[in-house]
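[audit] Reproducing an earlier prediction to check determinism. Same input, same settings, fresh worker. If the tokens differ from the archived copy the diff job will pick it up downstream; this log only records the rerun itself.
[audit] input (100 residues):
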Amino acid sequence: MTAPSAVVRAAMSAAWHAHLQQVDTGWLDMGFALPTLDTTRARTELNWAPTKDGPQVLAEVIEGMREAASGRTPVLRPRTVLGALGDAIRRGPVAVRRRP
């Protein structure tokens, strides 16, 4: 089932302004602006095929967020509110920090 983006955006905006959800329409706008990925070249030249479809990947991402999954890489390191506050005090706002 599909719905026009203007209808979905209006419903999302109303829900956000009524404090029924925590995500504003900017996230929806970003989602609608994402380009689709053409995997033809990877399939033909590398004999590649995806092992998971979009809904499976989204479910995995949501599960990882729910469980606060982490890893050994800098991006996936475990984080806490106190740690983020300490970083902000020591290193300043994220927008002005130098890359590591």
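[audit] rerun output stored. Observation attached for the diff report: Residues 53-100 form one domain.
[audit] end
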